[in-house]
Amino acid sequence: MKNRPNWLTIEYRMLGTISISEFRQALLTDLAALQDEFGIEYLRAPRLTVPITNEYGDPIAFSALTDRHRTRIDTHHYRPACKDYDL
Question: Which of 36, 38, 40, 70 sits at 20 to 30 Å (Cα–Cα) from 8?
Fold first, then answer.
């Protein structure tokens, strides 16, 4: 186990240009597979990189969609503090 990495990459390149809805479903399906098929129960500091394109697959800047430049956003998921203390 010493030489094995403690991370996993899931590739979505073969899907090509897809909608956020389709990506959401693919991601949820793959997370369920990690849990059910591979027995992975916990994660620490996962990161998701999303290459943003238009419907034709041409790259667009995130700042073109908002009023300011960004390269990182924090999660909108809320995790109660009591989870850290097993309350």
Answer: 70
Q: Which of 38, 35, 65 is nearest to 50 (CA)?
A: 65
For the chain, the residue count is 87
pTM tops 0.70: yes
> What is the number of structural domains in the chain?
1
Two tokens at 37?
């098929």
Q: Is residue 7 part of a domain?
A: no
Q: Is residue 2, in this structure, part of any structural domain at all?
A: no
